[in-house]
Design brief:
Elements: H1 12-15, H2 17-28, H3 32-45, H4 50-62, H5 66-79, H6 84-100, H7 103-123, H8 128-140, H9 149-162, H10 164-177, H11 181-195, H12 198-210, H13 214-228, H14 231-241
Helix pairs in contact: 2-3, 3-4, 4-5, 5-6, 6-7, 7-8, 8-9, 8-10, 9-10, 10-11, 11-12, 12-13, 13-14
Length: 242
């Protein structure tokens, strides 16, 4: 896993408006430490507040405090075992920790990562982020410890059933990872054709850059800017042409 998607939401009805606005302000300022401390104070008096525990885990994640995030998310999955998103976040935090420890230690974590994601996928047939995580996990794991291109494609197919764009992007990723570049290009183009989205343009341009095809990458970014008028495309062109 390269990243954990952490979505923060602020439950006003559970915290009260003043506390919610205070935490939101800390988040906007990227002052995660103050948000963390404020939530810890709140949890001293409200130790079983699930929303506060989840937010605390999210703030730990933003600070890359993976052990703390794991502890918060483990509390969530133990308290509400049928919530797919809690299992997804727990697996994601474990996966990020696995990237920071030595390979031997990481091997002891991988089964828990896989189990958390598989549980999330089982609990929520529509959970897109979990299926993306499984696509990536099964492609990156060595076969001897459970890696499997076929399983990765299985979850890419599930993604495609939920969202053609995500499914095509996932298949593009799988084929690119496996050096099947013609197939990868086909699927990245399919994703762009169906979605016409910023993500689609960036993924296709990054694919070309990975093949040292700067002219093709720039062409895609120019096309994206012409259609979406997003300044990030121009910034990327400038970086390429430096």
């Amino acid at each position: 896993m390269k990243s954990l998607i952490i979505l923060l939401c602020f439950p006003i009805t559970m915290f009260g408006q003043s506390l919610t606005l205070e935490i939101q302000q800390y988040f906007d300022l990227k002052d995660f430490t103050k948000a963390e401390n404020r939530l810890l104070d709140y949890l001293e008096d409200n130790p079983n507040n699930i929303e506060a525990i989840e937010l605390l885990g999210d703030f730990y994640g933003h600070q890359k405090k993976w052990n703390n995030a794991i502890e918060s998310y483990k509390t969530l999955v133990d308290s509400v075992p049928n919530n797919a998103n809690y299992h997804y976040k727990y697996g994601g935090a474990l996966g990020m920790k696995a990237l920071e420890v030595n390979k031997l230690k990481a091997l002891t974590i991988i089964d828990d990562v896989k189990q958390a994601f598989l549980t999330a996928a089982h609990l929520d047939p529509n959970h897109i982020d979990t299926r993306w995580a499984l696509v990536e996990l099964y492609m990156k794991l060595p076969g001897i410890i459970g890696g499997s291109k076929n399983k990765s494609l299985q979850y890419a197919n599930e993604l495609e059933a939920l969202s053609k764009v995500d499914g095509y992007l996932a298949k593009g990723y799988i084929h690119e990872y496996d050096d099947e570049l013609e197939q990868a290009e086909i699927y990245y183009k399919k994703a762009l054709h169906v979605g016409n989205s910023k993500t689609g343009y960036i993924k296709l341009s990054d694919f070309y850059l990975n093949q040292d095809k700067q002219d093709e990458a720039i062409h895609v970014l120019k096309e994206g800017y012409a259609k979406l008028n997003d300044e990030e495309f121009l910034k990327r062109i400038t970086e390429i042409t430096k």
